[in-house]
Amino acid sequence: MSFGETRGGEDTSETTLVQPAVPDATQAHPVEPTQAQPTQARPTQIRPVQARLRPAAAGRKLQDRYRLDELLVDRGDTQTWRAYDEKLLRPIVVHLLPANERGNRLLAAARQIACASYDSRVLRVLDASAPADADNPETDNFVVCDFAEGETLEDLLAVGSMRRREAVTFVREVAEALIGMHAQGLYHRALSPALVTLTCEGNVKIAGFLFAAELSPARTPINPEAADVQALGHMLRALGADESSNANLAQASARILDPAHPAPLRTAAQVTAHLTRALNDPPPPPPAGEAERTRAHPTPSVISQEPVDTPWSSPRKGFRWAWVVVPLLVAVIIGTIVAVPLLHNALTGSASTASPGAAASERWSVVAAQDFDPEGNGEERPNQVSRAWDGDPNTSWRTMNYWEAEIGNKTGVGLIFDLGEVRRVSRVELDLDGAGTSLEVRVPATEATTRPPLQGVGQWTVVGQALHAPAATTVTLDAPAGTRFVLVYLTELPRDGSAFTGGIAEARFWS
Fold first, then answer.
1. What is the CA radius of gyration of the chain?
2. 221, 310, 345, 412: which one has the fewest Cβ atoms less than 10 Å from its Cβ?
3. For 417-435, b where at least 16 C-beta lie within 10 A, e where not — what string?
4. Does domain 1-32+51-281 have CATH number 1.10.510.10?
5. Per CATH, which fold does 360-510 belong to?
């Protein structure tokens, strides 16, 4: 379920979606709130007067399109429904909001995330509508969100169906998704295992970004970035990461949650990098006894070893041969420097030549990326996107399997890379998954500084291409482009067994 909320029409606490102030590491789910004591009964609480919602029942339609099917949560002045979009024929989640100041604030938060979110791991806000007659208290606002079918991290923890490594990979995906959102100044502020879903396809989906905190305003974090990062620490602690034999993993939650830790993790990027190292760590060392025997016969260190019989200690040895060998070596090196770019251009079909200022170009960092499949179902292995810019050429984002190199009835599929701000891009270096891929490098046809165009490939302009490229290829743009977003669009895939598939292991962007 998209918002990970309880079924039924019962009234749930407004703090259901919020982290507890002081987590208890001994609890199975430290993010769950404690139950209120009998002396804190709701009837005694003083609440501001709220505009009441119109009586809602299953079957009611909004805008003659969104059909309400099942009430998930009733908070009194807001409701969350599982619903169905009868125009696009897909399940959705609808939030009914009051037509008052609070409802307008919720609507504004929903519209903000709708305009900014483009990471496929963040469930989108699809529609945010105000009533036609704002003076009529019988009308209400509503927000339509994506629906993700699957199990929440909270559910998976409850039944213990995930191995620790799988769960940590799950949390790492969440941390990685936060990087791009935080770069836009957007924060979840109410992140919990109940709001993170693992779909049937193995994709991570984060629900309630920005909006969940507004639905449950009981606790508003002073530092929203710190709140999101600490939520990752709570998740890791709930997974039992503290008890792992992996040293990096065992230290992860402490480095996040302990304010006095000498090496704290304070950003989503730091958490992602730390968890990546933890997942890539080699197995634990051998038992102590075996380790001691290994240290009893240490291997000499090349670094500390003094050089023996170097040219500096015996300058006359081979001196005459140096006059012949050195010029030959210099000629070979110069020939290689000149020949390699020419050979590379011949293989990639690029007519460009190396310029004297190429060595001074600057590499731009990627802050986020997403899959791009506007002519298919909208997704192309989104759970693998991070592999195309994680710095590890041994991991890659791969396309689905296709029965022909030209990708069936599509013009292509690809990845959109976010450079964080407008950059001057002159060339793109790619490590492809398989030789023989044809691709285009595209930039938005119109200025895009906050989000990339997603409606179709026609919104992007081709600025460079490579036909039947080798696994390591460089695409030099026809002219330097000033852009924040770069689309690497695969148009023809190499054969892989009985099917055709391609991919990107690493993408690097240079000025």
1. 28
2. 310
3. bbbeeebebbbbebbbbbe
4. yes
5. Jelly Rolls (2.60.120)
